[in-house]
Amino acid sequence: MAEASKPEMKKAVFKKVCELRPLDTGLNLTVKVVNTKVVAPRGRQMRAAEALVGDDTAMIIFVARNDQVDLMVEGSTLTLRNAKIEMFKGSMRLAFYCEDRQQYLAG
Hints:
Elements lengths: L26 E14 L7 E7 L4 E7 L11 E12 L2 E5 L8 E3 L1
Parallel strand pairs: 3-5
Antiparallel strand pairs: 1-2, 1-4, 2-3, 4-5, 4-6
């Protein structure tokens, strides 16, 4: 009986911030945190922060939730896998939801 081979994973394709479009999903990016502002304080059920992140082409606001807030340190570099673009009041926001093991946020 032949062994079942694992499907070969595709190599991740990283995009630049200037290439992002509204409602894009499955994004892989490497960005640097420029500025962070906490929008939901620690006393609440859910913590949230807005971080201005960017690369050498452009900048965008990243919405960090719960444990992600701790990674939003000015000057740190983040690798986002399977992130997405959300629209908020007509502006694009970068968001990341960890729903399975294929997705991760590394600082």
